[in-house]
TrEMBL record:
<dbReference type="InterPro" id="IPR000415">
    <property type="entry name" value="Nitroreductase-like"/>
</dbReference>
<dbReference type="InterPro" id="IPR052544">
    <property type="entry name" value="Bacteriocin_Proc_Enz"/>
</dbReference>
<protein>
    <submittedName>
        <fullName>SagB-type dehydrogenase domain-containing protein</fullName>
    </submittedName>
</protein>
<dbReference type="InterPro" id="IPR029479">
    <property type="entry name" value="Nitroreductase"/>
</dbReference>
<dbReference type="GO" id="GO:0016491">
    <property type="term" value="F:oxidoreductase activity"/>
</dbReference>
<dbReference type="Pfam" id="PF00881">
    <property type="entry name" value="Nitroreductase"/>
</dbReference>
<feature type="domain" description="Nitroreductase">
    <location>
        <begin position="17"/>
        <end position="196"/>
    </location>
</feature>
Length: 200
């Protein structure tokens, strides 16, 4: 279902940084499978033996990515777990879940339901807490997971900017409502709404 994350030549890194901005209005055009492939790979793809595109404390890789597809060409609406090792999607739930995700946003965030797709970043916070319990003050692993999620989110946002896709990072949401879309034992950490920007 996911093509290899190769693509056309991207702009310079300086240009990508200049292009990166929060986009909350979308054209309604579907995302291509290649675009989604590149976004997921940017967030948690395998970049070498034992390596991923985002840093992780101790190479622990506590994160998981869930794609919520609403309008992605050739990908049925639903939620999917991204498996980095095989660079593939594993179906989780069928149907358009964007409105449900939108309802979980705090303070009214219509872009969560009007975007073409969302990527939910989750993490095994409990496992991180245990792994790094010997580092004062004993909860440092929690911070490491959040740092890892931030790095993955920025990678996705920069890949979106490079490919001309609009993205906005969202952290204001009802954790309980989103937990059902996460791998078992994971906590929701961040959401990215994605879609082609609406012409202004």
């Amino acid at each position: 279902m996911l093509p290899p994350p190769d693509g056309s030549a991207t702009p310079s890194f300086d240009e990508v940084l200049r292009r990166r901005r929060s986009t909350r209005e979308y054209s309604g055009a579907p995302l291509s499978p290649l675009a989604v492939s590149r976004l997921l790979w940017a967030g948690q793809g395998i970049s070498g033996p034992g390596l991923r595109t985002a840093p992780s404390a101790g190479g622990s890789f506590f994160l998981g990515l869930t794609l919520v597809a609403g309008d992605v060409a050739d990908v049925p609406a639903g939620s999917y777990r991204y498996e980095p090792d095989a660079h593939r999607l594993v179906p989780l739930a069928r149907g358009d879940l964007r409105a449900q995700i939108g309802d979980a946003g705090i303070g009214g965030q219509p872009w969560l339901s009007s975007c073409a797709a969302l990527i939910l970043i989750s993490g095994d916070v409990a496992a991180a807490r245990v792994k790094f319990a010997d580092q004062p003050p004993g909860t440092r692993g929690v911070g490491y997971v959040h740092l890892e999620a931030g790095a993955a989110a920025q990678n996705i946002a920069l890949q979106a900017a490079a490919d001309g896709i609009g993205a906005v990072l969202v952290a204001g949401f009802d954790n309980d409502a989103l937990r059902q879309h996460c791998p078992e034992g994971h906590e929701p950490l961040a959401l990215l709404a994605l879609g082609h920007p609406r012409d202004r």
